[in-house]
């Protein structure tokens, strides 16, 4: 019975965060090194791990989530191995080395609790869609796990003069030092009668990366925020 399943057994721990397959995150928890994770993302754990939904650190920032940009978080603490997933989405693990990343909250799975984070408005887009776009910015020294609806691509903007254009609904994350501006365009569907015509794109320039998933989110990220 065990022999056919041997290839799916957990591998030895090599890092604080790592993939177990492409759709699951494995986190090595230790006392004093807590984790913030999306509520409902726990699929299994070993050891002694406690969960606290909506901890004080999250409540302090929750007022910014009135914009619609945010995800319910829980604090995970203790000693053991924690496995997280989000409805079979691909998991992308990033080790921040004193830098930062700006993340679409619907793609945020987990991050080290000691990292600096908050909800911020993306500059340069307000004139395109009401109050614009809001993202979760995370920075410092530690680990972040993102999800992607399919295997993502990571585009290196390279610091050149050329801009990288992304559909906002396919955007996962980007380097916060990149310059961002909006651009109006027409989706190809409008040419064959399926779309509504005018659409928006986000243009990135500067030195940094942009993470793009091969699937458009079902929600319009550039809708007017009430």
TrEMBL record:
Q: Which Pfam families does its entry note? A: AIM24 (PF01987)
The name of this protein is AIM24 family protein
Q: Which InterPro entries match?
A: AIM24, AIM24_sf, Trp_RNA-bd_attenuator-like_dom
Which residue windows are coiled coil? Answer: none
- Lineage of origin: Bacteria, Bacillati, Actinomycetota, Actinomycetes, Kitasatosporales
Q: Where are the transmembrane segments?
A: none
Gene3D superfamilies xrefs = Mitochondrial biogenesis AIM24 (3.60.160.10)
Origin species = Streptomyces achromogenes
């Amino acid at each position: 019975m065990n022999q056919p399943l041997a290839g799916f057994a957990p591998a030895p721990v090599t890092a604080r965060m790592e993939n177990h397959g492409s759709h699951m995150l494995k986190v090595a928890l230790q006392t004093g090194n807590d984790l913030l994770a999306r509520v409902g993302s726990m699929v299994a754990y070993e050891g002694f791990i406690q969960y606290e939904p909506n901890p004080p650190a999250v409540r302090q920032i929750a007022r910014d989530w009135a914009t619609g940009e945010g995800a319910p978080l829980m604090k995970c603490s203790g000693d053991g191995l924690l496995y997280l997933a989000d409805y079979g989405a691909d998991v992308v693990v990033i080790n921040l080395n004193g830098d930062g990343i700006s993340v679409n909250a619907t793609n945020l799975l987990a991050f080290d609790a000691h990292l600096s984070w908050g909800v911020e408005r993306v500059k340069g887009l307000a004139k395109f869609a009401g109050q614009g776009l809001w993202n979760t910015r995370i920075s410092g020294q530690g680990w972040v796990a993102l999800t992607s609806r399919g295997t993502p691509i990571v585009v290196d903007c390279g610091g050149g003069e050329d801009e990288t254009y992304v559909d906002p609904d396919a955007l996962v994350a980007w380097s916060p030092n990149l310059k961002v501006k909006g651009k109006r365009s027409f989706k190809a569907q409008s040419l064959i009668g399926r779309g509504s015509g005018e659409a928006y794109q986000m243009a990135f320039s500067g030195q940094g990366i942009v993470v793009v998933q091969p699937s458009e989110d079902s929600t319009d990220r550039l809708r007017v925020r009430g």
